[in-house]
Every structure is written in C-alpha cells, then in structure tokens.
C-alpha cells in the first residue's frame, strides 16, 4: 500500500509539474489554474498519506515531513517567477531522489 501511495503521489507530482510548465509558457492560463491548485493539494495530501503509511509500515518515513514543508513553502513564492519554478524543480528532484532511495 505504501509503494502504491508513493507511486501515485509521484504521478500527481509529474502532472503538477507539466501543468505548471504549461502555465509558465502561457497555455490556457485561465482554465489551467484551478486544476494546478487542485493537483498541488493532492500532492500535499499524498505526501502526508505516504509518510503515514511508511511510518505505520515501519518503512523510512522521515523524508516526507521535509518534502511537505518544501511543498508548503511554494505558497511563499510568486507564481510565474523564477523562484517559484526553481523551488518546484528542487522539490521534484528531492522527491524523486527520496523515492528512489526508500523504494
């Protein structure tokens, strides 16, 4: 169950990044903004769920709280600015690295 939650969260994160890239490039900004926020919430919820499942399953749980803090830190950056996409890229790299390490 833990690996399924981690895999789904990674899939949601990849979708979030692709949608964010499309927003950055100007594709359907008015229509894609609310799905981008919904995916962001889903990735945050998936991170919490994955961390809890890891904890309950005696897996490596400790990478998930820092990842969640980084995700929540996205709200402090301005969308469309370099800080926003740089933080998003950092989160994606760290998330994939942590996933490969804990898998």
Keywords:
103 residues; 0% strand; mainly alpha
Instruction: Please report the distance between the alpha carbons of the first and last residues.
Output: 12 Å
Q: H/E order of the elements?
A: HHHH
β-strand amount: under 5%
Number of separate helices: 4
Low-confidence stretches: none
For the largest beta-sheet, the strand count, sense and barrel status come to: none
Class based on secondary structure composition and strand pairing? mainly alpha
Total beta-strand segments: 0
Average pLDDT, rounded to a whole number, is 93
Basic shape:
elongated
Q: Using only CA atoms, what is the Rg?
A: 14 Å
Helix content: over 70%
Task: Give structural notes.
The chain crosses the membrane at residues 38-56, 84-102. Keywords: Membrane, Transmembrane, Transmembrane helix. This protein starts with a helix and ends with a helix. By secondary structure, the chain is an all-alpha fold. The protein has helices spanning 2-24, 29-56, 64-72, 82-102. The protein is elongated, with a radius of gyration of 14 Å. 79% of the residues lie in helices and 0% in strands.
